[in-house]
Amino acid sequence: MAVERRTTMDELIAAHRERLRKLQIQAARYGDETPPHIATEIDRIEAELAQLKQAAATPISDDLVEQLGPTGRYQLWMDGWPKRKSA
């Protein structure tokens, strides 16, 4: 499980780096006239990369992975939610 998680994280990081590189080339070509959507996307990808790198460096137990399920970090846990099926 941990190996699969690491492989997935590495793939996500590589994909974000590639997209960031392409946007940085576009921004370099525009120079001071870089459209705001390119600059904003560069900032967003850099922030996402920082989060992915931090997540990749943080160990996570197999039990926690099972608890979080397929939605991972996006699942919201609140007191009594999600509703557990009663026996």
Terminal-residue CA separation: 29 Å
* Helix percentage: 55-70%
Largest sheet, in brief, is:
none
Q: What is the radius of gyration?
A: 18 Å
Which structural class is indicated by helix and strand composition? mainly alpha
**How does the overall form come out from the CA principal axes?**
elongated
Helices, by number, come to 3
> Would you identify the regions where 5 or more consecutive residues have pLDDT less than 50?
none
Structurally, the number of domains stands at 1
Oligomer: single chain
Beta strands, count: 0
Order of helices and strands: HHH
Roughly what fraction of the amino acids lie in strands?
under 5%
**Average pLDDT taken over every residue:** 79
Question: How is this structure best described in words?
Answer:
With 87 residues, the protein is mainly α. The protein has one domain. 67% of the residues lie in helices and 0% in strands. The chain has three helices and no strands. α1 runs antiparallel to α2. The longest helix is centred in the first third of the chain and has 29 residues. The model has no long low-confidence stretch (mean pLDDT 79).
